[in-house]
Predict the structure.
Amino acid sequence: MLHMVVCIKQVPDSREIRIDPKTNTLIRQGVPAIVNPYDLNGVEAALQIKDQFGGRVTVLTMGPPSADKALRQCVAMGADEGVLISDRAFAGADTLATSYVLAKSIEKAGRLWGQPAIVFCGKQTLDGDTGQVGPGIACRLDYEQLTYVEAIESVDPDRGEVVVRRHLEDGVERVRAPFPVLITVLAEMNKPRRASLPGLLHAQTYQPIVWSTADFEDLDRSKIGLRGSPTVVSKTWVPEPRQVDTEFLKGETGEVTSRLAQVLVERLQTVQGA
Amino acid sequence: MDKPRFDAIVVGAGPAGSVAAYTMAKQGLRVALIERGEFPGAKNVFGGVLYRKPLEDIIPEFWKEAPLERRVVEQRLWVLGHDSVVGFSFRSARFQDPPNAWTGQRAKFDAWLAGKAEQAGATPIYETTVTSLIREGGRVVGVRTDREDGDLYAPVTVIADGVNSMLAKSLGVHREWRPDQVSLAVKEVLALPRGVIEERFGVRDGDGVTIELVGETFGMAGLGFLYTNQDTLSLGVGVMVSDLREKGVKPYQVLDHLKQHPEIRRLIEGAETKEYAAHLIPEGGFDAMPPLAGDGWMVCGDAAQMVNAAHREGTDLAMLSGRLAGETAVACHGTGDWTVGGLGAYTRAIRNSIIQRDLKKYRGLHGLLAGSQAETLFGQLPQALNDAVYEMLSVDGQSKQDKQKRAMALIREAAGGTAGLAGIGWRGWRAMNG
């Protein structure tokens, strides 16, 4: 059976995030938690493949106990199982430690439900913005790595391969890769579905599986949590607002537009001249 | 898959719906609580004042956990003139313990109240819109939602979907409101530091003031309000939709006008606008109330016009109606009679409650305000009262008797003569004691 894993993260809703002007850190208190939006694109991608070929979708998240809500949301959409990887010892992880724990969890999920043919991750998270965890997992598991994927053109479970379009800075790349692959997805790929009513009702009573450090036999303690995280945030600051000379154009619409055109042409000449 | 079945479906997780769900779930009924907003309260607005008694009867000592703003220890009524105010106020330490009312914010309060229903065992189904009632013969047997496979079944549906109740309309018991049966209220939430609020309103930490405003609404029937929250003020005004239409005035213009009044400006000075909201308020009162129950359904709260405009009570009537509907459903669950015969107990309970008694008492009020007298009551008289008091209090060499005469003349004139004044007094008394 085609087994797919989606790695998700619960993040503070960035529409509601503010920065504490005194400490320069994010004010997380009172900010609603949502599933990282790109991760939901990953869930949707897995569910679409499942709709077409059948199979099984497992959703993994590492986080505090309250992250079970994020897993329930994915189960409501149609994921078969949600696993919460939660332990005080995992806390304080950077992308290196996070990708280590997730890789170990994917191995464990593979032992339980069959080796995953495709692992999905979001392009990046809203709160971390690094985009490192997906590639980190692929390296550790020795999976083919397909990042910045905007479309899955075809999946062939029999031949065990997938064709995707990667959206890169200088163009679009069409790539064929054999299973197992790790795909990080862009928001353009799809529109995450609304849960059906039965899905929503099922998720209400669904209890995610919880894995703590005790549930792993081969965990290297020096590679998890704060100890396994070499990243140091030495300083954070809010950039000073840049001062830009602003000229307000006033008057009749006709006057203003011709004046605006004139200004733009002047500036263009300055830029080209320089 | 089997059709999802519950003992009861509640549509709308506002105060009426959440209390109905809470009441039923607490008695062991399997309840689905459906809300179209992202979370309960997301779409709700009120001034707002929340009274102790109605909710205390449902959740004892709720104030120890509910998100409330300030205890109301002083209530003021301000009659506004163009640049002055005649004020009345009542302040008492008796309002401190136990408090009579609190100011509150519905987005927070409704989310909390729905949470209580969830804790009691109700199944939350949010971000879900009920598109229609499912009927078999004349009976309502469930609801259809906008989700895939979205049909849900229960022997009773509690309709608490607010002032524009789509569902009550679909039952044919609820017409489109006439413009003279609804007010449009607009409100701003204005942020100020706690200390500044306490200083300006003369209250201690945790205590608050409510001010009701009459006048300066361009002669339209309606009231303004200014309430103190913890670190914000709620300033708003509601006016009859028919008046807005007739005068061609935009609701925000009325609010902006109030904000410019010198006495209000003084209180809100330096505040930053945090929210702007608008909402319809059903004002039709007793005579606009639809039938409240039928085969497989009951209607609660705003959806049933349960607002006492004269006393700014809507949230508490909604909660009381939710409780009565919930209790009725619990009783019917026992007997298995979900027809209008069984659920009719809800109509009787409402009739015997303060909801119907209060609304009946004020049934004439709406007619009084909707008529041509709005101009007199909300335009000319408030200004005349201000002018009269100014006349009485200014020392300008005139004899007191002359001043008194002039003051009385001002008011008489505004009311259209002695007969007019007497008429307004009589009709006003009748309207509030129908």
About this structure: Chain A has two domains: 3-223, 243-274. The mean pLDDT of chain A is 91. The radius of gyration of chain A is 23 Å.
